[in-house]
Amino acid sequence: MAHSCTRFIHRRGPPTRTRAGSKRGKRPRIQQRPRARVSGTIPASRLHPAPASQPGPCPAPGHCPVGPAHERPMGSSQEEGLQCQPSQPDHDAGGHCGPDLEGAERASATPGPPGLLNSHRPADSDDTNAAGPSAALLEGLLLGGGKPSPHSTRPGPFFYIGGSNGATIISSYCKSKGWQRIQDSRRGDYTLKWCEVKSRDSYGSFREGEQLLYQLPNNKLLTTKIGLLSTLRGRARAMSKASKVPGGAQARLEKDAAAPTLEDLPWTSPGYLRPQRVLRMEEFFPETYRLDLKHEREAFFTLFDETQIWICKPTASNQGKGIFLLRNQEEVAALQAKTRSMEDDPIHHKTPFRGPQARVVQRYIQNPLLLDGRKFDVRSYLLIACTTPYMIFFGHGYARLTLSLYDPHSSDLSGHLTNQFMQKKSPLYMLLKEDTVWSMEHLNRYINDTFWKARGLAKDWVFTTLTKRMQQIMAHCFLAAKPKLDCKLGYFDLIGCDFLIDDNFKVWLLEMNSNPALHTNCKVLKDVIPGVVIETLDLVLETFRKSLRGQKMLPLLSQRRFVLLHNGEADPWPHRGGSCSLRRRPPGPDLDSAHDGEPQAPGTEQSGAGNRHPAQEPSPGTAKEEREEPENARP
Fold first, then answer.
1. Which residues fall within 8 angstroms of residue 398, CB to CB, at 6 or more apart?
2. Which of the residues 31, 49, 430, 461 could staple to 457 if both were Cys, CB 3.0 to 4.6 A apart?
3. In this structure, is residue 113 part of a structural domain?
4. Strands laid side by side in the 310-314 sheet
5. Following CA atoms 64, 68, 70, 76 in sequence, which dihedral angle do they give, to the nearest 10 degrees?
């Protein structure tokens, strides 16, 4: 008779007695003979150990129970705090042109950073060998260039995409590395999870250092109207306190008051985020009031006069929903009566989370710079590629224009809001949509030809002065939120930042958006978006690998067009605002790298001394928990 592949180990001594109400004794463990395995892989029995009562091989990965038994699916209506609405960014869903996959494949031709290794140990397993992979085993797959070993028999790595925003580009990228897409959002054996809707379960079951998860849990500190306003105010309060210290920020602020032009602003090389000039919030962010706070609401109603237009926006909506202009006393009186009636409604007090979304009113910029008589704004990107340490990048995007000529007195919002959802309401959209999105090169040529000499601007103003200013503003916003952002190894985020330029060439930040639009329904977007997504994933994978192995971040071999704004390797560890449980090894020479001594990628200057930030302010909080919706419409 053939010998069994398993043997039973029995306990000696008297049988274990179990009393009522006490824990049951441990069941006899079943040990299996180790299977032969290929170097660099882990047998399925290690990744998914069989229950003690059922010896034998585990079913295919993905069919084993993973995570909590009662895990809710992504987008569950029960998740109030972290859930946001599915993105319908600028929604070009009607666009039938898919992404430029050939361009995506060319952009990803650079050898990709390593992939990741995942394992899950059942909660009831007491086999110490069934624990997660060791650092050595993780690095074994990491050195494989992101692709599984051709000799491996285990499926994966797996990736999950929730929603359609950029899904084709992301899927193409992952499949080019040999990864496999899964459709069940509840599976916990993924390597990469990219979702439009944030779920509490995703963060609760996230395995730090083993998985990559898109969107920081509390990115609403930057990506909602109230969140950004509160974050910037907190930074201003902290700087005000610091200015009272002799020789501190006050002297610098007084000195800065005499700075005549933007070109004179001192700016250190990217990667330092230590500009000598301290930005004031009012220099780049329009005057804003919260209508969910009584004292701010009353302050606005008191100061309003008909010489200035104001715009009222929900804190976390998209596609221009709920936005309207306030031009006269009758419109303001109607808004005042509506807010008071809602505040007095007893139902609103009993169930505040069901009440209407909180709003802000913002001073409308009535003198925007016009392109051929049309209003426009500029979309740029803030990439948080890694949070342990923080690796922050700036990326160029594109300019968005309205179809109709700008008229500040018009009641048609499509002439005030540049997002494509509003522009698609025009019957001329399909005919003229290619002219509603300009590349940054096109914008730069127009500014050179039209305003360079007439207005005495710097040559290539878009790529010099404007770019510098956008980087300064992004740096300021990130540093304001940094002490409070959640940070775990594997979290990353791509945030869309919208800027408006007035006719004095002053740059204003309108808003920052989570889950920015990644659709490609016109030629410019087909040229821009795939490169943004692919370089984002390349940088995320490379910084993850280097953080996991304790290597120096620079140089970054996958960096192409993104510019490094902040290298957090010198920051205090762990980060004050995060929950960084993994400790990195001290940075040391990368003995395994074959690329030492090569020229650094653009914008990769090493950061000097760590940035010092003001004491952490209390969390800004709102009148009630808000449901985030990405891609808010802009004024």
1. 378, 379, 437, 438, 439, 440, 524, 525, 528
2. 461
3. no
4. 288-290, 359-363, 310-314, 324-326
5. -100
**Both structure tokens of 496:** 């869309």
Give CA–CA dist 511/224, Å, rounded: 8
With tokens 């909660």, the residue in question is: 123
Q: Give the C-alpha separation, 546 to 621, whole Å.
A: 35
How many CA atoms are closer than 13 Å to the CA of 331, on its beta-carbon side?
14
Helix, strand or coil, per DSSP, at residue 397: strand
465 confidence band (pLDDT: 50, 70, 90): very high
Domain assignment present for residue 273? The answer is: no
Check pLDDT > 50 for residue 102. Answer: no
Name which residue leads in pLDDT, 177 or 143.
Answer: 177
pLDDT above 50: residue 567: yes
CA distance 442 to 446: 6
424 shares a domain with 542: yes
* pLDDT above 70 (res 583): no
d(CA 374, CA 423): 12
Count of beta carbons in the 10 Å neighbourhood of residue 276: 11
User: Residue written as tokens 């300064």?
Assistant: 472
Same domain? For 334 and 421 the reply is no
Per-residue buried b or exposed e for 565-577, using 16+ beta carbons within 10 Å of the residue's own CB: bbbbbebeebbeb
Q: How far apart are the C-alpha atoms of 41 and 576, rounded to whole Å?
A: 37
Q: With bands split at pLDDT 50, 70 and 90, how would you rate the model's confidence at 151?
A: low
Residue-range definition of the domain harbouring residue 486: 222-240+369-567
Q: Check: CB of residue 403 under 8 Å from CB of residue 429.
A: yes
- CA atoms of 476 and 482, how far apart (whole Å): 10
DSSP β-bridge partners for residue 483? none
Q: Which structure tokens are listed for 577?
A: 């605002």
> Is 0.85 topped by the overall pTM?
no
Task: For strands 192-195 and 158-162, give the pairing.
Answer: parallel
CA 518 to CA 536: how far, in whole Å?
Answer: 12
Residues 514 and 381 in one domain: yes
Q: Average the pLDDT over 570-587 and give the result.
A: 52
- Check residue 495 and give its pLDDT: 98
- Cβ–Cβ under 8 Å, residues 188 and 122: no
pLDDT band at 152 (very low <50, low <70, confident <90, very high): low
User: Rounded mean pLDDT of 335-347?
Assistant: 79
Structure tokens at 176: 């080019």
Residue 374 lies in a domain: yes
Residue 495 lies inside a defined structural domain of this protein: yes
Tens-place pLDDT, residues 210-228:
999 999 999 999 999 999 9
Q: Which two tokens stand for residue 115?
A: 């992939």
pLDDT at residue 321, rounded to an integer: 73
| Helix, strand, coil tally for the chain in percent (to 5) | 30, 15, 55
Q: Would you call the peptide bond into 157 cis, given omega within 30 degrees of 0 as the criterion?
A: yes
Determine the 3-state secondary structure of 521 from DSSP.
coil
Q: Which of 476, 474, 481 lies closest to 279 in space, CA to CA?
A: 476
Domain count across the chain: 2
Same domain, 407 and 548: yes
The structure tokens listed for 209 are 């250092």
Q: Which of 312, 335, 363 is the last residue of a domain?
A: 363
Spatial separation of the C-alpha atoms in residues 398 and 419, rounded to whole Å: 12
394 and 332 in a single domain? The answer is no
Segment 17-57, tens digit of pLDDT:
444 444 444 444 444 444 444 344 434 433 344 444 444 44
CA distances from 552 to 81, 569, 592, 604 (A): 36, 8, 12, 12
